[in-house]
């Protein structure tokens, strides 16, 4: 029996939509953390007043060397410990868990400052803690880029795939943080900070979380 065009009209599609390869990001507010945050702010302002800093992803503002654990005191050590505990909750290793280590630095951003898009190669997790965020609604948001973003845009500008939730997927995710917020994300993910246009200064602490063999 031969098929006819009318028979083809009966074809229907049954497909289940799946979201694959989830990218895990943690964004939390530390409770009872004001004494630690105040101590961190004091240490950063003291360091910045007598240190020229370095230039990395920052455009404007002050970026310390990555040795804040050497001068940040007990508050910096406590923050590093909290970040590692968060990362351990979101990590699984085959065999014995490796040794964790942290590199930490501070950013002080006046009006007009920003951080260019970048990633942290050779690092497992990246984290950022917010000590001061300036005026609300005046920029300075942390943004996280979809790592797949450039490829479909090269094929057809303006294209966005529909996600498992039925909504067009964003090409980046923005976070407007508050004092006491801690954000953890995979270090390979490109990220940056939008220009801050408010008054005062924004102060943040960035961390690279590494793992290596024990002993």
TL;DR?
The protein is an alpha+beta fold and 215 residues long. Helix content is 22%, strand content 28%. The chain has a six-stranded antiparallel sheet. The protein has a five-stranded antiparallel sheet with strand order 2-5-10-7-8, with no helix packed on it.
Number of helices: 5
The main sheet comes to:
6 strands, antiparallel
Beta fraction: 25-35%
Broad shape: elongated
Element order: H for helix, E for strand: HEHEEHHEEEEHEEEE
Distance between the termini: 74 Å
Could you report the average pLDDT, rounded to the nearest whole number?
94
Summary tags:
215 residues; alpha+beta; six-stranded antiparallel beta sheet; five-stranded antiparallel beta sheet; 5 helices
Structure description:
This protein is of the alpha+beta class and 215 residues long. The strands form two sheets. A six-stranded antiparallel sheet has the order 1-9-6-11-4-3. The chain has a five-stranded antiparallel sheet with strand order 2-5-10-7-8, with no helix packed on it. The longest helix has 17 residues. The protein is elongated. The model has no long low-confidence stretch (mean pLDDT 94).
Write the layout of secondary structure elements.
Layout: H1 5-8, E1 26-29, H2 34-49, E2 58-59, E3 62-63, H3 68-71, H4 73-89, E4 99-109, E5 114-118, E6 125-132, E7 142-145, H5 150-155, E8 172-175, E9 181-186, E10 191-193, E11 202-212
Antiparallel strand pairs: 1-9, 2-5, 3-4, 4-11, 5-10, 6-9, 6-11, 7-8, 7-10
Helix pairs in contact: 2-4
